[in-house]
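A common beginner's mistake is to predict each chain separately and then try to dock the pieces by hand. The better habit, illustrated here, is to supply every component at once so that their relative placement is modeled jointly.
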Amino acid sequence: MQTQIEIHTEPLNIQSCIDWVMSPDSGGIDVFIGTVRNATKGKRVLKLEFEAYKKMAINEINKISEQVFKQWPVQKVLVHHRTGTLHVGEIPVIIAVSAAHRDAAFEACRYIIDTLKQTVPIWKKEFFEDGEIWVAAHP
Amino acid sequence: MEINILAFGIAKDIFGASTVSVELPAGSSTAHLKASLEDKYPKLKQLASYMVAVNNEYAEDCLTITERDEVAIIPPVSGG
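With all components supplied together, the output reads:
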């Protein structure tokens, strides 16, 4: 039962995330890689800015990971999230889960990204040609 | 008592600063804090929702706040 959580401004490294969750007991690794999309509702996105309340965000991701280990027979959980300015195609988040069997890895990975988007204090601002908005701030 | 509040995301724009302080009677709760902030910054009420975090945990409205607590305003999150 091992968890690695990181939040920082450096570019995320996909290979090192996969290497960290790899283990001889594992039959598979499920990886979710979030990428910056070039448009939102048909409007061209120039860049995103991510901000985190780092201490609390790590706390909340830890809670998600604890829940995952209670709910699924997984071996390692990794969540790396980037902050700062990201351009189209760059990677704000990597989630990697290893497990003996694939069902647990797939389900846990999905649960982590879905829950992260609901509870973890990280915010993104979208920059368009004609303005900028904090995503989800207003109804 | 004076409570210092950390602001993130759109809350920072609404307050015009990444920290603000409010004066509250001793023994005030999260709900009192929200009411006081909404009074001072009515745009908070236009948000889809927002939470108060006390010492890095989401706080219920009835939680009593003290000057020693780390208090933050958490507008709707959008990570990932």
